[in-house]
Amino acid sequence: MPFLSDTLSRVKPSPTIAVSNLAAELKAQGKDVIGLGAGEPDFDTPQNIKDAAIAAIVAGKTKYTAVDGIPELKKAICAKFKRDNDLDYTPAQVTVGTGGKQILYNALMATLNPGDEVIIPAPYWVSYPDMVLLAGGTPVFVEGPSQNGYKITPEDLEAAITPKTKWFIFNSPSNPTGAGYTAAELKGLTDVLMRHPHVWVMTDDMYEHLVYDDYEFATPAQVEPGLYDRTLTCNGVSKAYAMTGWRIGYAAGPVEIIKAMGKVQSQSTSNPCSVSQWAAVEALNGLQDYIATNNEMFKRRRDLVVSMLSEIEGMECPVPEGAFYVYPSIAGLIGKMSEAGTLIDTDETFAKALLEETGVAVVFGGAFGLSPAFRISYATADETLREACTRIQRFCAALR
Ligand SMILES: Cc1ncc(COP(=O)(O)O)c(C=O)c1O
Questions:
Q1: CB half-sphere exposure, 228, CA atoms < 13 A
Q2: What is the DSSP letter of 225?
Q3: How far apart are CA 127 and CA 353, in angstroms?
Q4: Which of 397, 210, 398 minimizes the C-alpha distance to 308?
Q5: Which atom of ligand 1 is nearest to the CA of 237?
Q6: Cβ atoms within 10 Å, residue 238
Q7: Whole-prediction pTM
Q8: In Å, what is the CA distance from 247 to each residue of 60, 96, 166, 196, 326?
Q9: Would the CB of 41 count as within 6 Å of ligand 1?
Q10: Which of 14, 206, 243, 247 to mutate to test the pocket of ligand 1 (most atoms within 8 A of CB)?
């Protein structure tokens, strides 16, 4: 009898974490490596948030809390949904978990039965398909090609829906492409969902605040109030407040699913870290000015990376609306040979050769379900980005 479970054999470890680990390993060996794999802001957590956490520790708020979040945080989350999304939720409709990741996992664990299908637009955040598999469901992919700004169309969504579809996972702005759906584009998708009342929407709004130019964020229950009763609106403090290590994510939706998610959490981790919850209260209720300041920096970096990569022959780099990723297509480079003699036959060999020959670590598109492409996280210093893009330019210019 095998010791490890059959379920585990269906999933793979996170490829983005694998790239970060490999880059760290090479760095430790003294190699000149630039890691562009990590999906987290390089800014420090704002001081007011740190102070709130310190105050919580000093006040002894260091014990178990309610499993799915302290009332003060749930109240702050309800206020945030009203303020930012014009959505009305009561605290009973809110759940708090250990990062956005646990929230999504709880929701899938609480709802999926074998055979249930979950529609996932590709390219996708690496964890969606594996979480669906772990929860016993079946991922169904719908491709959003680069020519369409990495977005899917209403027709694509319609064609993917079957009687077995339970969820449609929506993520805008997206990891890995940064693509953001306008309210009108999203309405096209929600119109389809209105025709299929058995399909629920799990919207992952993690990058809501990281948006550039005149792009305006929109979320499904806001664009189509008719979907309110079958939408789980997921979000978190990790990206907007540079709080990836604090591990606080949250969701709001119908009470029945919120309760079910709490049940899953009660038998796994119990409450998210008490101190982090108090920090998140401050993040959501406190001044929000630094988000705009950080965004100016992110936008400058996005423009730098897009313009440098767009100079490369054979590479297409759509301009993303948000998040801190770009996802250039390398269709024009497949079949070429690198200077060191590696045949670039897939985006995986491209990323590997790029790392070995130039020291730049990126994540290959296959990991996100749409090839041939790669993801760069530009949440790093301008100078580092300029150097990395110069190396990528040189590497590509030498391809024969
Ligand atoms: C699209 C998306 N959703 C969810 C998460 C998870 O966020 P957290 O760090 O809060 O678990 C991430 C993190 O990379 C993400 O990119």
A1: 10
A2: G
A3: 25
A4: 397
A5: 10
A6: 22
A7: 0.96
A8: 20, 10, 27, 34, 25
A9: no
A10: 206
* Average pLDDT score over residue span 287-307: 96
Q: Which own/partner pairs from 313-321 qualify as long-range (CB within 8 Å, at least 24 positions apart)?
A: 313/396, 314/396, 314/399, 315/396, 316/146, 318/146, 318/149, 318/150, 318/177, 318/179, 320/173, 320/177, 320/178, 320/179, 320/180, 320/212, 321/173, 321/178, 321/179, 321/180, 321/211, 321/212, 321/213, 321/215
Alpha-carbon distance of 120 to 202, in angstroms, equals 10
Report whether 325 contacts 377 (CB < 8 A): yes
Residues in the chain: 400
**What is the pLDDT, as a whole number, of residue 93?**
98
Would you say 328 and 176 are in contact if contact means Cβ atoms under 8 Å apart? no
Assigned token pair, 75: 């109240």
Of 96, 90, 77, nearest to 284 (Cα)?
Answer: 77
Contact 371 CB / ligand 1 (< 6 Å): no
* Pair 89, 79: CB distance under 8 Å: no
The Cα 338–Cα 187 span in angstroms is: 44
**133 is written with which tokens?**
């598999």
Ligand 1 contact, 131 CB (< 6 A):
no
Q: What is the pLDDT of residues 11-45, one digit of tens each?
A: 877 777 777 788 888 889 999 999 998 888 889 99
